[in-house]
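ENTRY TYPE: protein
CONTENTS: sequence, structure tokens:
***
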Amino acid sequence: MKQGGNGRKEESGGRGTAKVVTRRVEPAGPLVDARMSEQELRSLTGGKLRISDADRRTYVDALRALEGAGVEFVLSGLFGVYAYTGISRPVNDLDVLLEPTHVLRAARALAAQGFETCLVEPHWLAKARRENSVVDLVYGMANGLFLIDEAWTRRGWPGVLDGEPVLLASPEDLIFHRLFINERHRFDMSDIVHLLLVCHEHMDWHWLLERLGEHWPLLLAQILFFDFSYPRRRRCIPEWVREDLHRRHAGRVVAVDRGREPCRGTLISRYSFAVDVNEWDFRDSREEAVEATLRAPVIRRIANDPVWCESGGDAA
């Protein structure tokens, strides 16, 4: 299923078909002016996927290398959002989500095609660079809570990137992933409400609630934000979902912990809640989750493999 600004949908058998077609870089629109900062320009949405020809060629080479190596993955990030909604921002990298057990095979396949592979943060992210183009190998979450598992590919939706068949992360998984990204420079809440607006009829709401587990309050907060953004589209959210979440919230009991009080705000923003853990003596839930993930044998194998260059890289 795909629905853009014109309201049309494309449906096929199975879970749906989302087509991604890369285009030449074009101006974002009349809102652009010389006073806009780099972050404002990067946040400005448009109706066309803005990607350079050089990046497009590199991404296709990367996809073919991964396919040839038998690596299972789904595409996420801006490609996923564009495929389902038709909304785009400037593309800076290709987000490839894969299980940790496939990371080293993927890195070796890309290195064989001339990519420089760098381990950025061992618990979730590596990057492969060729000239100025970047492919992100994402196998976990920055907050350390979750690793990518086989359900991401099993539930993927078929799509096309520049003629190459690909799997896209499902709308539910895109929403799940973005619920934990709330930095000032990476406020992904608009992506979530757009996905809810466009994909709500085709979503597996039971799966999303199951995937969130104890973190369901993030979805409740997002639904309230959706209602604020689209006051006449309340029907897009199934009533049983609202009732379930409100019932959970009304009956919620907070366990008594005699130790230091935790701050879970760091799970969605490491910077905005830095004062809580650095100066106000809250426990850092993000740090605890990351340390636990780093102890996992599969993560240690990734971190200690010689496929990575020594220069490292910057986290997304």
